[in-house]
Amino acid sequence: MTIAKEVTPYDSTPGAPEVPYYTPQQPIPAGTFIESNDDPNAPAPAIFTPLKIGPMTIQNRIGVSPMCQYSADNFHATRFHEIHYGAMVTRGPGITIVEATAVSREGVLSPHDLGIWTDLHAESLKPIVDYAHSQGQKIAVQLGHGGRKANGQPIFLHLEQYADESVGGLPPKDIVAPSAIPYRPYGNLVTPRELSTKDIHRIIADFGSAAKRAVEISGFDALEIHGAHGYLITEFLSPVSNKRTDEYGGSFENRVRFLSEIIDAIKSQIDTSRIPLFVRFSAVENSVDPEGWDIEDSKKLADILIEKGISLIDVSSGGNDYRQKSRAELSKSQREPMHVPFARELKKHVGDKIVVACVGQLEDKPEIDNKYIEDGVFDLALVGRGFLREPGLVWQFADKLNVRVAQSLQYSWGFWPNRKQITDLIERSERELAKEKEQQN
Fold first, then answer.
1. Where residue 409 sits, what CATH number does that domain have?
2. Where is the stretch described as Disordered (predicted)?
């Protein structure tokens, strides 16, 4: 049954045009700063100030990090995903990044992960995007390929167990990597087949086609390239996993070629003056191998990404070498969240040339996250587990920082803002937008 979307005569609030059902059109995005509880004239804390990421501006600096949910049906998004992401975007993160979504069939992380190598896959993601837009929120998707770590079991079943054909996986011969080196010798993941140059070019083209679908069919506002955690792009970047002797292996320049050509393929398919590109990468490999990727490599990569017009780097670490230090050990030795030191070094290196996001253990102390942003350690805090535990984490951060932020109309009736504050915020937003356009001209 189709429910009419037209507004009834007694309802003065128009419906959001992005969805085929009634939900009130939001005057301002949830998560927008209103005022401090202590001083109505005080400025917003740094974490609740807007952030410009290339052509896009978000209302605060708290984002939902991509997190695999292992709930796809034949690699399509389901109603579970609509509910899962809807619960978070309604409550106002600056941006939500949908979980790792495979650009090729052999690149899925498990038989229950999302894919986007067909139009039907992209169409299954569209209701999630449309709902986010109906709430005035920005949403991105992470595009990736698992390489030698593809076709594993969902993590709640086994951390490193190959998913064979009996559970919907692929035969071992279809698992590919830059070199035929297993992730863990004598482990439960298979030894991959070394990619031919022809297959490399095919996967590069797959990234471009996936990006086009994500924008033109699904409608995402931004795209993130997954170059971290030991998946295919990381495998090309690191000399630990890349032993090739052709143009895609050996020197630093050759090892970054795969990622560079993926960016070119995506830029040939979408309008990057309208859709910003992000790249997540492991800033350090945490490996005992002296050849392992380190922070100096990441600085050189960041320079390349700036030249290629990437709008944001998403700083993580590890995942490519089974001999790496544990995350708990890393955090303990650093006495701060595990990726903060790497984000700090990269931000110091790149300055304001590119937005720097940091992920990992940022969910519990918003006052410390705010100080990091205030001090220029990084620009955007990406949180994963915190949003799983509390979809209203942005609201919780605001309460802990003793400030008021806008909520969706459905939730704001018992809280803030009131109607006058909404009007004032709209007028303020319009003034700021006009000023920004004037400066651009």
1. 3.20.20.70
2. 1-22
The tally of domains found in the chain comes to 1
Note the pLDDT tens digit of each residue in 74-101.
999 999 999 999 999 999 999 999 999 9
User: What would the pLDDT profile of 213-233 be if each residue is shown by its tens digit?
Assistant: 999 999 999 999 999 999 999
Structure tokens at 93: 């993160």
CB 30 within 8 A of CB 92: yes
Please give the Cα distance from 79 to 125 (Å, whole number): 10
Taking Cα atoms as reference points, which of 73, 69, 100 lies closest to residue 84? 69
In a domain, 415, yes or no: yes
Q: Confidence band (pLDDT; 50, 70, 90) for 13?
A: confident
Looking up tokens 């209302």 gives 59
Residues in CB range of 171: below 8 A, 6 or more apart:
164, 165
The whole-number average pLDDT for the span 271-276 is 96
Alpha-helical (H) ranges within 308-418 are: 327-334, 340-350, 366-374, 385-389, 393-400, 409-412
Using DSSP's 3-state secondary structure scheme, residue 409 falls into helix
Instruction: For residue 234, give Cα distances in angstroms to 101, 132, 153.
Output: 16, 30, 20
Does any domain span residue 19? no
Residues in the chain: 441
Q: Is the pTM of this model over 0.85?
A: yes
Residue 391 Cα distances to 89, 90, 381, angstroms: 8, 9, 15
Distance in angstroms (rounded) separating the CA atoms of residues 248 and 236: 7
Specify the DSSP element, H or E, that contains 435. helix 419-440
pLDDT at residue 282 greater than cutoff 90: yes
How many angstroms separate the Cα of 252 from the Cα of each of 49, 238, 279? 37, 9, 18
DSSP character at residue 224? E
Judged by average pLDDT, the poorest of 72-76, 100-104, 108-112, 159-163 is: 159-163
What is the distance between the alpha carbons of residues 378 and 361, in angstroms, rounded to a whole number?
14
178 exposure class (CB count in 10 Å sphere: 0-12, 13-18, 19+): buried
Q: What confidence score (pLDDT) does residue 421 get?
A: 65
At 440, the pLDDT band (50, 70, 90 cuts) reads low
Residue 11 lies in a domain: no
Q: What is the mean pLDDT of residues 266-294?
A: 95
| Contacts (Cβ under 8 Å, ≥6 apart) of 154 | 68, 70, 110, 112
In terms of residue numbers, what domain contains 395?
Answer: 32-440
Q: Give the number of other Cβ atoms within 10 Å of residue 36's Cβ.
A: 17
Q: Please give the Cα distance from 200 to 194 (Å, whole number).
A: 10
User: Do the domain assignments include residue 10?
Assistant: no
C-alpha 65/C-alpha 156 separation (Å) is 19
